[in-house]
Amino acid sequence: MPILEVRRLKKYFPVLGGVFLRRTGWVYAVDDVSFFVKKGETFGLVGESGCGKTTLGRCIMGLYDMTSGSVRVQDSSISKLTPAQKKSLSTHLQMIFQDPYESLDSRQTVRQILEEKYIIHGKARNDLSVVIGQLLENVGLSRDCLSRYPHEFSGGQRQRIGIARAVSMNPEIIICDEPVSALDVSVQSKILNLLLELQKTMGLTYVFISHDLSVVRHMSDRIGVMYLGKIVEMADASTIYNNARHPYTRALLSAVPLPDPDARKKRIVLTGEVPSVENPPPGCRFHTRCPHADVICQESEPLLLDREKDSGHVAACHFF
Question: Which structural domain range is residue 235 located in?
Answer without folding.
Answer: 4-92+171-186+193-315
